[in-house]
Amino acid sequence: MTGRRRRVESVFQGLVLAFLAAAVACAEPEAPAAVADGATPGKANAADRPARKKASATIAHIRLAGELPDGVGQGGLLADVSPHLHRIVARLDKAAEDSRIKAVLLVIESPGVGRARADDIRAAIGRIRKAGKPVAAHFIGSSPVHYSLAAACDTITMPPAATLELTGVRAEMMFFKSMLDRLGVAAEILQVGEFKGAGEPLTRSSMSPQLRAQYESFVGDLYEQLVEGVAADRGLAVPRVRELVDVGVFTPESAREASLIDAVGYEDEALTALAGRIKAEEPKVARDYAKRKVDDDFSGLGGLVKLMELLSGQKQDAPGGRNRRIAVVHVTGEIREGKSSDDLLGGGAAGAETVIDAIRGAAQDEQVAAIVLRIDSPGGSALASDLIWREAQRAKKPVVASLSDTAASGGYYVAVAADRIVAAPGTLTGSIGVVGGKIAVGGALEKVGVHTDVVSKGRNVGWLSMQEPFKDHEREAFLATMKDVYRLFTAKVAEGRKLAAAEVEKLAEGRVFTGRMAKQAGLVDRLGTLDDAIDEARKLAGIAAEEEIDRMLLPEPRGLFDDLFGAAASGGGQVARWAVGAGVAAPLRAALVARVAGLPGLEYLAADADTLVTLLSGRPQMMMPGRLRLR
Asked: Which of 121, 174, 213, 269 is 20 to 30 A off residue 501, Cα-Cα?
């Protein structure tokens, strides 16, 4: 027992040292809000300090940078190292309500957001401006989505060496068939729905006419939204904006001349201009306003205990008082069976078990008046999606679906259980169809001298074998299961959206829509943000507009140790077990490790490989067409 204990302690200490190094490297202590920009706080007694002129105002300084995903996210230290969208929105809303704050400087440095999440941030910026507080953007440049954040502010300043990209909308998809042919690997992908092209990257060398047609459709609508948005934000004529988009790339000075920005200057100059606007000679600057502080003193035994508490995660504070609550249940990432993950390596997944527990808990909580499903998912397992749908549909409380950047296929399947669906104009949704298949590597193995002999009994026992392609009767058996799932999908859409079956068929077949297109087609009820969805939930629950409510975010935040050891404890899902049996787990792990090591390009390999493993699991999947990269 003693030896075993020592080994455990040794492993534990090694983990602690590794995480300590990462924490110290990542955690940057926050400058106190009461300290003026450039000042150094001292510890002298008040009597020893010279009298200061009281500052006339405080400017909140908030930086938008790095990934800002949907979801509750990690607990503990990682909540601040890798913040989620709702924390940024909460900080912006606090600036709107804080009487000390007279203006906000928003530093926009290529944050990882899509169009729907950008709309949530734009709405929060609008609430600050509605409170009578100017918002200035210091825009360091990047994509049109990032520019839309800056354009929501009162003024935009860019540093002289930056570049403004307003280049339009582009969708990219990689195709691997030629590579697989050279390797002797046959990918067998079946689909129900003419436009359901999720497997095309493995079976074709370019887009099919059907897939290209639908991509042209939603890319065209996103382009129109971009042009209309810039015209409205900057007070420009639509034809003029089209001309500017065709130019696409601007130096700061040329962007200023085109009225896309207001000034060329550095961050300190943007602050000075903002101070002049609020007529404050010596404003205080609350650096990283409302960001939770991270105490990075982990020395001694007390520091070790503190570090372990931070890494293990912390439960969110329960809303106090007797206010009624709106539960926001996040469905983020690919939908899978088992438990959810929100890790630093694979990007996370929405596990049916975790999401169902969250919905059930909210439904049973007497203080919860309504439930909002916040969905940011391209879909995934048909079975897992159906189980989540059932739990949402049977909740005896109003349920509203809020669609984020992507809520397609299985993600949309879950949404139709709701009483109301709210989407952003730029949301990608729909994709009502089913896809699935397997990959046959027997030919590739033969090329390197590996031969497989088989002894079997049963006509379709080899239908999921990776040694050879489907036999005709095996393909028929698999396709029959997919057609049944497709019938189930379209029936649920018809029931949930109160549409005739014939009308659903016109919208199905795997077609993808923007939120704006989906609203016109009757697939969603309203265009708006998460706050708009909560407003719908409030109305359905009969809560007056002036009555205060609390938000409860679900599922509970996870700690780093949960994700490190939780999967091992639960045994993983069917896809994970299949992956191990198929011998692909090791390459996936290697790709993930390479991603952590910072080798360029391999992060895409890791993400694509994970999606392909799901697609090729031999189970019907509700997934978007292909691995789409949208810019």
From this structure: 213
